[in-house]
Amino acid sequence: MKKQSDFKSYKKEIMGAAHDDRLRLALTRAIKSFRANVKDALERFPHTVEMAEEVRQIKEKAIPDMEALTKQAVAAIEENRGRGYIARTAEEALEIIADICGTGKLIVKGKTMTGEEIGLREYLEEKGNEVYETDLGEFIIQKMGSRPMHILSPAIHVPREDVARLFSKVIGQGITEESDIAAMVGAAREFLRDKFFRADIGISGANVVAAETGTLFIIENEGNIRLATGAPPVHIALVGMEKLVPTLSDAYKVSEVTWRYANYTVPSYVSLISGPSKTGDIEKVTTYGAHGPGQFHVVFLDGGRTRLAKYPRLLQALYCLRCGACLYECPVFAVTAGHFGDKYFAGIGAVWAAIVNEDLEKAASIAYTCLTCGRCRQRCPMKIDVPEMIIELRKLLAEGG
Amino acid sequence: MESDLVPPGLTYLADNITSRQNILGVTKEQGARWAQGLDLPVRAETIFFAGCGYQYSAQLERLMSLVRGIDKSVIGAELPMRFARFQKKLGLNLPGIYSNVLSRGILPGKEEPEVKPLTAAVAVLRKLGLEPGYLAEEEPCCGAPLNHAGLQTRFAENARAAYARLKEAGVKRVIGIVPYCTHALAKLFPRYVDGYDLEVRHFLEVVAEQVTSLKLRFPRKAKVTYHDPCQLVRYLDLVEEPRRILRAIAGIELVEPEWTRGEWATCCGGGGGFETVFPELSGVLAANRAAELLETGAEIIVTHCPGCVMQLKDGLRQLKADGVEVLDLTEVVAQAMGK
Asked: A40 vs A36, A263, A380, CA distance in Å?
């Protein structure tokens, strides 16, 4: 077993959060607008509900087939002149990426939960690199020295006034405590602008990957992913093996359902990336590294996912699209944010802690914090039965096996 | 073998079920006292399954104030959260402390009002022409908290024994009332009991079906909101039934929160023993849910679960919402029948 968790500090942490008025204020605002947005998105595009059922079937087939799909994707990426890797553990993934990066580099990073899972930024910094989070929420978290509190909106627990206070200190750009949100967004843009173009390496995750072509689908609104995966000469992507589906058309469906349940009618950008930048415009000689990255590396992480896929009642945790909708329905999350969780949050976070991270004490503390009220299941596009998983997990924790 | 990762609050409830066939480990006679004088038959094909939540609600409230007290005290600041190993390390005997307080008996007069929902339910069923049996001291415990704690082996053993006892008593049909018990009897027992053949329905289904045959008028005009218990609405899919019943009562205006109603109702923060593991957090959630319901402007919060009733009362107390009361749906219907 890895690091032992301490229940006393866990309880202190979640109760501290539950009595934190700033956090409550930020979450109340976020939940209100999220619900209104999802309602609007689903009303305007009602076919999404049926498409979600189709995606569930795609995932039900893909998850038991993760291993083969990953190999297929690696082969496709190599054929596209990129490099594909399969990392069995978090440590292996870190090593592969650190080897590509080396030291003394300027790195711009898009948001990747898988990166958070393995502590990628911290590791690359330890290796002597300068790493910038470019997603606004992640950027705020990085500057605060905090950790993400929601899988999609990492700074969900920070109200605007606190961001203004932080920015006035760490990036200046004329931000004061009275600055409005637009001014803060503008300041972050100015601060990060030259980092994208000076960067040696751009790092991203992916929302879904089509195995047949090795194509990464990356959903975003800010445009930081476009810049981070487009401007630097090297692009490295870190992707969990559960993100693989067989075809491009499958991957498109997964993407649409993901963004719709993540409260968007349509996101501003979806990047499809299958290989390095290339041109044949001079004498039809294919040359790599035209305007985009000349090098394209994709690291697929197992990290316990194939182990999780062997538990009949728990493998549904791998169907998760990480749309984050469930978290807005969780009564405990509404007062504690990501303090109720580990690498991933709320009920699904307990399953990950137990099977993927093998930290049983942490898993127990999260599992017994779940109310099993089932409102997350009501919202989930994949109809993941969190209460069923929690009871099953408690059984494993209580009775062993 | 059971590990020590189960929170002591839950092992306490579990051990009581195993040893005394009720979650509080008190006598079955205490639980059955509410039905004295009702002359319910002890042997019948259709029985009313009273369950622990309502029968022991007075004791439950005492347990909760004790747990909350321990949670806040210096010695026990972290105790109910800590898992068994820490408890052992400290040499504390939580079950001992709990039982001591509970065995002191219930103050006369304190007990009677708390079981109103059960007498009310029986009155409603009788008005509908039903005369269910009631097993009283012989009623087995459904054992739902065992399942909830992750102790499935013990839950399965309890389920088989409970089923055998019901069969011996000649039971064919069960009308359940506590959401947790009804869900266990209807949905969980069939997974563990071979040849399970009891027909289990919830009180709400039975009443909603025939509600138009009752002439219901609430004693006064009242703005009422309804809180859906998780087990009823998301586990037993009883969404329309309570609303059909409330709408059939003259004098009642049903007002509901815009978002958090029906399948989207927010959990009250209790149930399944969560409140014994995280008493303080449970209180925060109770106040949150009460606040959502108060936004409707209702003067009565109606719900239909002993856990929810307790939690919402606590939530209103915290919010100092003195003019608003919490009533069980059974009481509302009984009052509207003129009882």
From this structure: 6, 8, 16
The answer to whether the Cβ–Cβ distance between B150 and A374 falls below 8 Å is no
Residue A145 has a pLDDT of 85
What ipTM score was computed for the predicted complex, to two decimals?
Answer: 0.90
- Please indicate if any CB of chain B lies within 8 Å of the CB of A226: no
pTM for this prediction: 0.91
Per residue in B143-168, pLDDT (tens digit) is: 999 999 999 999 999 999 999 999 99
Angle B8-20/B94-102 helices, nearest 10 degrees? 60
pLDDT digit string, tens, across residues B171-201:
999 999 999 999 999 999 999 999 999 999 9
DSSP characters over A360-396: HHHHHHHHTT-----HHHHH-TT---HHHHHHHHHHH
- Is residue A110 within 8 A of residue A218, CB to CB? The reply is yes
Chain A residue numbers touching B149 (CB-CB < 8 A): 394, 398
Q: Are B7 and B88 in contact (CB under 8 A)?
A: no
What's the domain range around A357? Answer: 7-44+311-399
Q: Do B285 and A331 touch (CB under 8 A)?
A: yes
Among B86, B150, B280, beta carbon nearest to A391:
B150
DSSP track, A30-79: HHHHHHHHHHHHHHH-THHHHHHHHHHHHHHHHGGGHHHHHHHHHHHHHH
CB of B1 less than 8 A from some CB of A: yes
* Chain A: residue whose CA lies nearest to B261: A375
CATH number (domain holding residue A147): 3.40.50.10420
What's the CATH number where A346 sits? 1.10.1060
Task: Enumerate domains of chain B plus CATH numbers.
Answer: 8-61+108-207 (no CATH), 213-336 (3.40.50)
How far apart are the C-alpha atoms of B129 and B221, rounded to whole Å? 28
B271 touches chain A (CB under 8 A): yes
Largest CA distance in chain A: 69
CB contact under 8 Å between A332 and B285, yes or no, is yes
Domain-embedded: residue A353:
yes
Average pLDDT, chain A: 93
Whether residue B330 lies within 8 A of chain A, CB to CB, comes out as no
What is the pLDDT, as a whole number, of residue B98?
67
Do A270 and A339 lie in one domain? The reply is: no
Domain count for chain A: 2
